[in-house]
């Protein structure tokens, strides 16, 4: 059974979510505030964290940020009643993997959880964006079946961007994925982004664009 952490201060909603997820074969711990969530995360491993933004004691954005600062890459779905682009970008900038606006259908939540759980378990071996295919295990990428030549560092950046597509990935998350805690100067990431753009080429219809105030995102000409 897949184990999740739900962080939600609305006890009625939390109860409904826990009960529904149990029917879908998810085991769900529940925390009602941000501090309790960090305590759960320090003592347990979870496939996915379902994290409300508006929480007492410590808000969801801060919880997600602290999680990523510790190097914890547990997938996070943010829950919020606000359907504003700036709010979504703020969540992605703090390291969220997905975003769900209240009210939502339980079936949609389950579908998103299943997708993130598969990614977490390593069962997703290939990531796709149009004609771009990223082989996570083989550390290779192809465009329309043709190999894309790039450095190992550029591949790591590409993998993170494709995983998040079409959402942006923060500079902090990209730097963490490439260098861990031993991060060089800020220009180093820009250099690798430049090399990745050249590797993809204009003919691919793909580009890596700056997301103002957040980081970078992969953009497809088909969007």
Structural write-up:
The structure is a single chain. It contains 8 helices and 12 strands. With 223 residues, it is α/β, with parallel strands linked by helices. The protein has 2 domains: 2-121, Rossmann fold (3-Layer(aba) Sandwich); 126-220, Winged helix-like DNA-binding domain superfamily/Winged helix DNA-binding domain (Arc Repressor Mutant, subunit A).
- Please give the alpha-carbon distance between the first and last residues: 37 Å
What would the CATH topology of the largest domain be? Rossmann fold
SSE sequence, one letter per element: EHEHEHEHEHEEEEHEHHEE
Query: Segments where pLDDT lies below 50 for 5+ residues?
Result: none
Read across the widest sheet, the strand sequence of neighbours is 2-1-3-4-5
Please indicate the percent range of residues in DSSP E strands (runs of 2 or more): 15-25%
| Structural class estimated from helices and strands | alpha/beta
CATH superfamily of the largest domain: Response regulator
Radius of gyration: 18 Å
Quickly count the helices.
Answer: 8
Give the helix proportion (percent range). Answer: 40-55%
- Rough shape? globular
CATH class categorisation of the largest domain: Alpha Beta
Please state the average pLDDT score.
Answer: 89
């Amino acid at each position: 059974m897949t184990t999740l952490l739900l962080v939600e201060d609305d006890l009625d909603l939390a109860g409904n979510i826990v009960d529904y997820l149990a029917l879908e074969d998810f085991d769900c711990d529940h925390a009602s505030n941000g501090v309790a969530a960090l305590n759960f995360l320090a003592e347990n491993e979870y496939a996915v964290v379902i994290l409300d933004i508006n929480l007492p004691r410590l808000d969801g954005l801060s919880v997600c940020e602290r999680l990523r600062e510790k190097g914890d890459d547990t997938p996070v779905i943010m829950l919020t009643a606000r359907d504003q682009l700036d709010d979504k970008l703020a969540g992605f900038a703090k390291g969220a993997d997905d975003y769900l606006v209240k009210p939502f259908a339980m079936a949609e939540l389950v579908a998103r959880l299943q997708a993130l759980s598969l990614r977490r378990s390593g069962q997703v071996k290939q990531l796709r964006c149009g004609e771009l295919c990223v082989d996570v295990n083989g550390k290779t990428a192809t465009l329309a079946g043709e190999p894309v030549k790039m450095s190992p560092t550029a591949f790591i950046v590409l993998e993170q961007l494709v995983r998040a597509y079409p959402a942006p990935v923060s500079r902090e998350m990209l730097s963490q994925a490439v260098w861990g805690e031993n991060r060089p100067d800020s220009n180093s990431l820009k250099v690798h982004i430049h090399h990745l753009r050249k590797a993809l080429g204009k003919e691919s219809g793909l580009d890596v664009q700056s997301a103002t105030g957040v980081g970078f995102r992969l953009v497809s000409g088909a969007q």
